[in-house]
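User: These chains co-purify. Model them together.
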Amino acid sequence: MNIAAAIFVDGLIDASWLFIVAVGLTLVFGVLNILNFAHGSLFAVGAYTAASAVGWYYGGNFGPAFLGYFVMLGAALLVAVAMGPLLERGVLRLFYRRDEVVIVLVTYALFLILEDATKLIWGVNPYYAYEPYGLLGNVSVFGLSYVGYDFALVGLALLTGVLLWLGLNRTISGKVVLAVIHDRDMSGAMGVNVTRVFVLAFTFGVFLAALGGAFTAPKISVQPGISISVILLSFAVVVIGGLGSVEGAAIAALIVGLARAAAIHLMPSAELFIVYLVMALVLALRPEGLFQRTTTRKI
Amino acid sequence: MSAPSTRTMPGARTRGRISRAGQYGTEISTLLQEKPGLVYSSLWGGDLEAFVLQAAPRGLMKDRLVIFSASDHVLQPLGNRMPDGVIVGARGANGQFAEPSPINDWFVAAVAKAHPGVNPVQPHYRGAQGVLAVKTAVEKAMAANGGKKPTTEEMAAAMVGQEWDAPSGHIKLALGDGHQAIQSNAAGRTKWDADAKMIKLVDIVHFAAECVNPPPGIKSADWIAEGFTGAKCN
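Assistant: Joint model of the two components:
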């Protein structure tokens, strides 16, 4: 297989799960102006919940194998509904008026709490959810064998991106969210229930993190520590793409995926730092990120 | 890879160094492209499990030699998802590599009683050998100080050059002026046992401690580069 083609395919697969996770992070920042360090832990909770649900479903032979995908989707929804409002109303809202650094520290504390909570609930041994991974067979692309599930993940990422864009730009609710992103004070003055938008946006962000975790779980060993590597990559993606930009998250995820794939194929030792090199270059040339417009500061 | 590694495996190349939330798709693609005759990894734990779960369906572990030098502890969790014929190491003669002995029989029975269904592997064995090392040092120090509870310094002094028996075999602090332990090692191939519903290790080969560790006074990397001068093998 041509190396360029392999880099493209591998980069695309890598970008797909990264986009699903990172777009949730950038959406939460766009609406609530919070850089949620706990986003990686929510990915992990989604992965653990899906792994448990998949183990229960296939272990009990409760139905056709393909329904396992809906079980995973259900697991992500469960995490979002259970944790989104709880975290936003129970913790974050208490700090909205505080300095941004304080809120980042609060989300970091949430990250640490959730890390230990997952160990308390699921223990420290790895979990598997491998059954869905093999259901779609193998696909040969330019002579290399790939698992069909990886391309389904690409499809899921595309669907997520399209639905999110349509939801934000073609529905009234979405335009309300965009209005809050643009100017929350003016939105509130115009009668928008900003509190409800915050809860819903944060819950949707949690859903996206958990969705990424749930659908990544079948191809990995779900174990303590997966959250930190995810959050570091997600941060890099949202910074490159521009905080609060959905389109930016998509392009940045692709850039990060392709950069890592290129490094592994061509210069493996560069893989250690390539993402941060790309991030540094983007920030040096365009500090607000690729798709973030410079904004005026209110006095 | 460093020079000693290419000395033992001419033509070897490194692909992939770190875990990326357990995603190894690109590394697997590069390996598949290069069509190697041998794939080696020292991944362990969940990272190795993820690698096997992703590599096996893509055919990386088929029709080539695969060596996982630190992998005995993933055999039980992976079960029949680990292909047959993979060469496995356990960082010592641990787990299924441990040769029969009264102390190993006692240890395996004790683990079975305390944790039914758990096959003891390298972490269990190395924990045990550590505890037994301290026990031996305490006994030696007490013999030297008239039977009193030894101080930390007395125990440290007793441990220099110490030898003791563990479930994985005989261990001695033979290098580094009596501060660095050496023990035997082993390797075997995986084979799924459908009756026992577990991976058994077959074609096991043992290596004496002095065969796989350098003699005193030379660094491991230099010893390998020189061609294992003075190695005492079975």
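The longest strand of chain B covers residues 198-207.
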